[in-house]
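[09:14] KT: can someone run the structure on this one? pasting the chain below
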Amino acid sequence: MKKREQLKIYSRKNNHIHRDKKKKLKGILKRIFSVLVLPVIISSMIPIVTNLIHTLHDDIKINSITVRDAPRIIGDYIVNEADQNNQFSNHIINDVHFSGEKAVTVDSIMIKNVKFSNFEFSDLVAHYGFNDKSQTFDAFIMQNGNKNVDETYHLKISNVNINSKDKEISKYSSNVRLNSGDIRKIFSINLNKDSIFKEMKKQLNQDDLISLDIQNSKGNSKGKKILQYDAKNNKFIFPPTGAASGGGNIDEILLFKINSSKKNYTKIVSETIDKDSRKLSFNLLFNKTAHVDYDIYLSYQMTSIKSKSEENHKSIDIRVPHYIIYGSPISQDNSVYYQFMIKKKLLTATYKQMKIFNPDLLYTVEDTEKLFRVRK
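[09:31] RB: done, structure tokens below
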């Protein structure tokens, strides 16, 4: 009996020892696999996976990235404006042009390493108009940039000859100093009382046209007013105008709002680049006048799309205006600013004064945002 019990005890001990040895052997084999075999398998798979990814992403590459000013919306009309020496408004469009023929879907757009640095610019806009009742022509200059400037303006008066060159009759001059955001009157002429216009009327026939051309010191026109002579009533009147033309559809836009206090931005998107249109466009809206550097990255299947490094990086000057401009960025005939200055009988107004007088005329980035349908 005792021998049987001893044999059972011995057998149990022997089985336990055998199980321990098997566990130890398994542990050793696992360590050998993880240390020696697994790295070999992984290293052999990397070229295969890498090659597969590269093969997939050879379907699309970035050829170029161009920057242009976003069109401005004036009423129901869209005005396209070319950039001036790499200077842009604060609302721009980045057009990414791709190579490849296969339709692919871009899944993210990243704007990285945004850097703002100091930039000063002058944006002189003429605001002018004619009061047919008082026969008075008034002109103002607005400094819509962030720079203080001295400038000389000339008012060139000509008899408009449709069949040949206009005949210049006289020229007025005005020197003006403008601080950032200033609006100043440069010309005020009563066409009934002014001696030059009295003499001019003697040479004009019924319905003849005259032009009042505001020019800067370089001779560039900043605004031109055309008036028609009514000989029967001995006064100048507005000539007939044609119907407005143009117009366009306001598309939905993909917008990044770029703030000077933040460096990196990412949008998760699903933008299909088909074989016919190899372009993706998105908008940037900046909150500050500055020289801006930034990098653009796009991904497809969660992997960055290849491009030349110089194409990824953009370096541009951004202009944020003081005031909302509703029409031409160069000249404003009978603008709200002209009407405001005439109504208030002001010769000059500073930006601080305009904040008090009529804050609705001051520009904010929200004014631009409201004009477009922004994609959510």
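[09:33] KT: thanks! Residues 2-57 form the longest helix (56 residues).
[09:34] RB: yep, looked fine to me
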